[in-house]
Amino acid sequence: MRELLQRYKTGDLDLAEMVSLLRTMPYQDLGFAKIDHHRPLRTGFPEVVFGKGKTPIQVKEIVASLLGNGHPVLVTKTNVETFDLVVKEVAAAEFHAAAQMITISGPIAQKVEGIFIVTAGTADLPIADEARITAEIMGGMVTQINDVGIAGLHRLIDVLPQLEKAKVIILVAGMEAALAGAVAGLVSVPIVAVPTSVGYGSSFEGLAALLGMLNSCAPGISVVNIDNGFGAGYLAVQILRTRVHP
User: Fold this and answer.
1) Predicted model pTM
2) Mind listing the domains of the chain with CATH numbers?
3) Model pLDDT, residue 109
């Protein structure tokens, strides 16, 4: 870093070259993980911690590293045991039990409006919560509409006036996930579809919902992985930020 600054000072690097080099460095090596502190320069948001498979102590140390560099913290697919360790170090940490997430809010550079989350059923709420919390910590303003699956299609028709205000819709559904195609045929905005593992035996833990969304007759649907509410919330904010600053 000192070498780069010196080269910039003497004129060996211009500003564009300096920024380009800074975009790929530095990271902090914790031994078991390398924390990418310059990710916000490249992508607009800090590294997110995938909690599953990590020990509570590993998560705690990663969180400390992120906070030490001024980043907001988002831990996905985690548990209360890990949270209990994190909150002892950071009182501001919050645990979202249904979504299995830990958050520590930080400064938001830009807020974006117009994200709507739509769930097919109540059993889809944990994944919808994951999408909402992700979008909100990134600066997204979220409206959520629950339990409008196709088993009672009149419920969807009743909320159409609200959906017409959306700029992007995150649609969360399990079972056969037919709601994705139904909504896509009624609105003019991008839909980020999230298949959930909700369903009976032949749903194959969300595979039926995934295939249903991928094979929807209605266009305008982008599909993330099974139970990946985080990916949907992240993508929705990116879509809106691109529209604001193309």
Assistant:
1) 0.85
2) 2-104 (no CATH), 112-244 (3.40.50.1970)
3) 67
